[in-house]
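Thread: quick sanity check before group meeting

JM: Hey all, I'm pulling together slides for Thursday and realized we never actually wrote out the predicted structure for the chain we discussed last week. Dropping the sequence here so it's in one place. If anyone has concerns about the input, flag it before I start.
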Amino acid sequence: MGTKGEKAELRRPRYAVGLMSGTSVDGIDAAVVEINGNREEPPGVRLVAFENSPYPAGVREDIFALFDPCNATVDRVGKMNVLLGELYAEAALSVIGKAGLSAGDVSVIGSHGQTIYHAPSMEPYHGRNVHYTVQIGEGAVIAARTGIPCVSDFRPADMAVGGQGAPLVPFTEYLLYREEHRTLLLQNIGGIGNMTVIPAGCSPGEVYAFDTGPGNMIIDGVVERLYPGQLTMDIGGAIARSGTADPRLLGRLQQEAYYSQPLPKSTGRELFGSSYIDKLLHDAEALGMQAEDIVATVTMLTAWSIGDAYRRYVMAGHPADAMIVGGGGSYNPVLMEWIRKEMAKEGVQVLTQEAIGHNSDAKEAVAFAVLADYAITNRPNNLPHVTGASRPVVMGKISY
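JM (edit): ok, ran it. Output follows.
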């Protein structure tokens, strides 16, 4: 229980900044939010300003190079860690200015950082079982450049008590989206897709979430390979719409063991990255497929994986009323059309964040602002039932 002074301080409106850079590496999402509430009540959260700052092309290339452990030497990781801290600080100051505020008005910055490796499964190592994760973007640099306390490197605290360190956003989704009479699915489609299940009238311990599989990662990766120097994504789903999903390749891709792996589970570029795309394109070539049909097939795979995840892990226990989709994938009308068809089979309405008055792009940045607000006041901010952690912990390392 907090003191009266702490309660009064937390009840006052305060501003926080959230920074997010996802597996698609398309830039830095920065959000300013106004937060109200004390330790004993859910926060009121209002988005004040949002900006996306694209990475310079050379920086994006260097980040992608670090996804290959052979390239991720200590010097390269160290340099990029500091550089990203500088870029994140610039993004934070820019969005604070857009909100009409100064740095002195902001109580905390929460930075997810850039994941370059995530290994959530335990493996034996020198007589111990270990799992690990690597996010870069130095919080000390962000704090020094902005003059604002920065909470960064959220995942290790959850992993230290047995969790997978992911997904983290369900904590804030429970706070901000739960309803008394409807069961909701929150589906994010970034590089990876992830689903949060919020049963009607639930407690925090009843929320569960997991990564459904690839979101935009394979679609973007295939497009970059098939249209080198021309495209990095299927803009508006135009390529997929011009093609036809091939059931032979789709059937092979659906056999990936991840889809049937038990919960809790999370995944990333380690599974669905460059090597995966190499094999996929080799198989497609052997089948004599055209480029547009390959893009259609992997787009269908993302839609199918979301429907399959619902049927496999959710439907029997918590039949849903609606799915709310956010992230970059929600702007692909073909992908959304195919998701709607998948979910219509089970009677689930599919909406976008915009349809309910929210912002798809800002959603995860908002989440890290709220997670930082909890961390800076020493309040647990994980959901053990979601991540597999043995207990609630305060996630995030604080730099002043």
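AS: nice. The mean pLDDT is 94. The chain is about 40% helix and 20% strand.
JM: adding both to the slides.
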